[in-house]
Amino acid sequence: MKLMRLAALAAVLILSTSMVLAMGHGSYPDKPVNYIIPFGPGGESDITARHQQPFFKKMFNEDLVISYKPGGGGAVGWSQLNGMKGDGYTIMGINLPHIIVKPRQKDVGFATEDIAGVYMFHYTPDALVVTADSPFKTLQDVIDYAKENPGKLTLSGSGKGTANHLAQIRFDQMAGVKTTYVAFKGTGKAVTALLGSQVKAEWGYTSVGAKHEGKVRLLAVAMEKRHPKFPDVPTFKELGFDLVSGAYRGIAVPKSTPEPIRAKLSEQIAQINADPEFRRRMENDGMALLDVDYKDYKGFIDAQAKVYIEAATEAGVIR
Amino acid sequence: MQTDPKANVARRDVGGMVTAAVFILVAVIALWDTTRMVDSDSFVFPRTVAIAMIAFCVLLIAWNLIRPESGNGGVPAPGASTVRRVCLVAAMLVSTALMPWLGFIASGLMAFLSIMVIAMYDPWTRFRKLVYPLVCTAFVVGFYFLFAELLLVPLPVGSLFE
Amino acid sequence: MPGIEYLLEALTLTNIMLALGGVIAGTIIGSLPGLTATMAVAVLVPITFSMPPASALILMGAIYTGAIYGGAYAAILLNTPGTPSAIATTFDGFPMAKRGDGDLAVTLACLASVTGGLVGAAFLLGLAPPLAEVALAFGPVEYFWLAIFGLTLISALSEGNLLKGLIGACFGLLLSSIGVAEISADVRFTFGSQVLLGGIETVSALIGLYCIPVLIDLVATPDRHLKVTHQPKGFRLLESLRISWKYKFNLIRSSVIGTLVGILPGAGGSIAGLVAYSEARRASKRTEHFGTGEPEGVQATESANNATVGGGFIPTLVLGIPGTPPDAVILGALLIQGVRTGPNLFTQEGSIVYTFIYGLFLATVLMLPTGLVIGRYAYKTIVTVPKAMLVPTVAFMTIIGTYSIRNSISDVIIMITLGVIGWVLNRMGYSPSPIVLGLILGRIAEQGFVQAWTIGAATEELFSMFFGRPISLAIIAFIGLSLFYPLIRARWIGRRRKVSAD
């Protein structure tokens, strides 16, 4: 009996001290932070996280430990996020348009509003890509071909209901053409199909231009301004199409994470984003940096959701 | 597994037929689910497969009815313990299901120890009583460190201990 | 030999130590069911940030090649492919172990893996830029036919009951389409359950379907797991060398198949092993012994899957397109280091590429001594450990291995459930291999079919899409050959017998 009481006392003591320790987030982070990528290793979500990894360590003196929880196009990870411990030491990558489109297709175990995003740190802009020896020299060539041969212009892209797919639908609408979108599993496979001339063009990303320099040509990029790495490639806007889109990436935390930690995390990611060396590396890979911090997150998502939902409904991806 | 051809002569492959019937049911459920898919990209393949599966199953059942001796259902090995089999599966399932609450080490120990008892055919000498549990604890803890610390797998800690 | 001047650069003490450590760690990781080469390489990525690119590549390449070889242990000794590449190793490896030749099978696998690894690396060294074009020549329709070619193995694996094999394969194909579809993003066959959202993970399904039935039968009787016919002594190296020499053509053919399949970004080690096994079986004089413990079967898969390592690096380094999943991780690590892949890599940054390729040779050669020693140790352990320790250890490893693939407890439950289903089905005469084949090849077949159909329909040339492309026609010819070869051969042998009888 006495032993039990002692044990209980010890348990209470340990519990309370650990709680005090957990409350003291003045020095967040004071242990390694677990960064979960809801996709497999080697993809672009993984690579951007790997870019952040050394800078996080350098600036905040703690490791950023990357692990993977792939499945269901990210849905497996996101549906479990809010069940995880909200102490700031578990964070997860989030992607647009995935977290907007997926929950509206079918029940995937989370809603867009459930995801407590703290920062959107970059996006890979959509781009229309052709091979270096393609007869299409300008965007107008593509539009002309598509007008003459409705439906015969095949374009590869990564998945359905994705940034590539929605860009294709929106562009077809704006340009008044009909093209055929061929979905592949991931950007890597979509590029392979383009390089092997299985398709005539690809809805890809600016990063494709960086990775396969010399073998592909970007005809236009879906950005506000030209990409610093591709100063000669026009934006869709310049050519008269209001298309600014891409795959946006950010970081979210479990819902139970306290406000001060969320704000702090948001600040820290901003700090990494501001580092000139980090910017150089990201832009060299063809990414575009973005700074949507914790307080702007909701407004940003709402604005994006409007556009994406419209395009996805048009595509029949959402009923 | 081990099929003794002699024991099967002129024996109808009832097991194979029943399984085929179950597979037909599975295929029908799959077909029913494909009716809710809108994109032809999503339903063409599973629908084709499900129809093929029904055809093969019907063929198998028909074949068995016409030529009963063609069956080759398995025969249980003599002296095999079904109780131990069921216990093994139960031990694995239960300890895995408890993992979110008990955490990895506790549920791993539970699985390891119970399966050890289930798989024990030799007498429990004092040496074994002492050494086996020790080895098993060392194994579970060792694996925990290998996976959690070296391979950085986030193993469940257990909500009871948080 | 191109870039010979870099050979010395590869042979620094640091690089030799990295290659040795990588091979040992890789072999051990690969032998644990559930720990795949992809994961082993991914764990290393942060460590390689602080290394020069060539050394980082050598370390990752060594781990990768070691892990592919290590997969053979679990396949041979426990009937569980440690990595998907070793699926076809179970077909003959486990029967060999059962009858007491486990040590021989392990040594044979080691020799075959080294051969395959060297052949793959040689292709990478000498012919990488032209061979990379193969990766581009394979379009959706070719992948579709390749998957169908893989499925023809069912007829060989269904042990006399073709209908049951076909039903099993259909079941596997249906299992492969559970969850969020990879290209159409539709949610299929989940029936509202979130557990099934992520689909059935291939490696966990392998563990469930192959390993759990073995465990279930292992606890049921007091018999030993593997028969022991002789005192485990030596490596049986001479015997293995003799067998390897006897079947040298099989080894070379399988290595070349492995290299070529490795180049294809949509295929991977599992398909390389299956195709090589199928071809070895067809070409062998002992076709009917395949599946009952035929050394040629083990040699074919093990040489082919290690050849995919070198083969997979070809498109990775030349085109920046990863040939296999571990290559994707390695490519990512290189990108972060600022190394740009592409044809220029071979001319402008020869020091990185050639140092790495020689490092890969080095790692493969080091695999011979380390593989033999670790293999012998693994065999002795499995044979001598009492059942009351062996069963819980293996069961525990299946749980932790399955969990760590996607850090998911539901995957473990699915794995055990599939194991029970697999056991019951086996009892009813449905063997697990056709199911596994369907599960692995289903996704490739479906994607290839849907994409080819979409392109063909858009350009209004559906028929020539499926039946008018040279590579497709070649694969179709192979499909016909492997389906009808047994018939042709039986008739041929019959006729010859008649002639000799006359």
Which stretches of chain B are poorly predicted, pLDDT < 50 over at least 5 residues?
1-10
User: Roughly how much helix do the residues of chain B carry, as a percent range?
Assistant: 55-70%
In terms of DSSP E residues, the strand content of chain B is under 5%
Helix content of chain C: over 70%
Q: How many distinct domains of chain B?
A: 2
The Rg value of chain C, from CA coordinates, equals 22 Å
Whole-number radius of gyration of chain B?
A: 24 Å
Number of strands of chain B: 0
Mean pLDDT of chain B: 84
Low-confidence stretches of chain C: none
Shape, principal axes of CA atoms of chain B: flat
Instruction: Indicate the overall shape of chain C.
Output: globular
Main sheet overview of chain C = 2 strands, antiparallel
* Structural class by secondary-structure content of chain C: mainly alpha
- Find the structural class of chain B using helix and strand composition: mainly alpha
Order of helices and strands of chain C: HHHHHHHHEEHHHHHHHHHHHHH
This entry's quaternary arrangement is: heterotrimer
Straight-line N-to-C gap of chain B: 46 Å
List keywords for this structure.
heterotrimer, A: D-Maltodextrin-Binding Protein, domain 2, D-Maltodextrin-Binding Protein, domain 2, 2 domains, ten-stranded mixed sheet, 43% helix, globular, C: mainly alpha, two-stranded antiparallel ribbon, 77% helix
Summarize the structure.
Chain A is of the alpha/beta class.
Walk me through this protein's architecture.
The complex is a heterotrimer of chains A (319), B (162) and C (502). Chain A is of the alpha/beta class. Chain A has two domains: 32-123 and 246-315, 3-Layer(aba) Sandwich (D-Maltodextrin-Binding Protein, domain 2); 125-221, Periplasmic binding protein-like II (D-Maltodextrin-Binding Protein, domain 2, 3-Layer(aba) Sandwich), CATH 3.40.190. Chain A has helices at 2-23, 44-60, 75-81, 98-105, 139-148, 163-175, 186-195, 206-211, 259-274, 276-284, 297-315, and strands at 33-37, 64-68, 90-96, 116-131, 154-158, 180-184, 201-205, 216-221, 246-253, 288-292. In chain A, strands 1, 2, 3, 4, 5, 6, 7, 8, 9 and 10 form a ten-stranded mixed beta sheet that branches. In chain A, helix 6 (163-175) links the parallel strand 5 and strand 6. In chain A, helix 6 (163-175) packs across helix 11 (297-315). The radius of gyration of chain A is 22 Å and the shape is globular. Mean pLDDT of chain A is 89; it is low at 15-25. Chain B is an all-alpha fold. Chain B contains six helices and no strands. The longest helix of chain B has 27 residues, at 40-66. Chain B is flat, with a radius of gyration of 24 Å. Chain B starts with a helix and ends in a 12-residue tail after the last helix. Chain C has one domain (4-491). Helix content of chain C is 77%, strand content 1%. The radius of gyration of chain C is 22 Å and the shape is globular. A two-stranded antiparallel sheet of chain C has the order 1-2. Chain C contains 21 helices and two strands. The mean pLDDT of chain C is 89. With 502 residues, chain C is an all-alpha fold. Chains B and C meet through helix 2, helix 3, helix 4, helix 5 and helix 6 of B and helix 8, helix 9, helix 17, helix 18 and helix 19 of C.
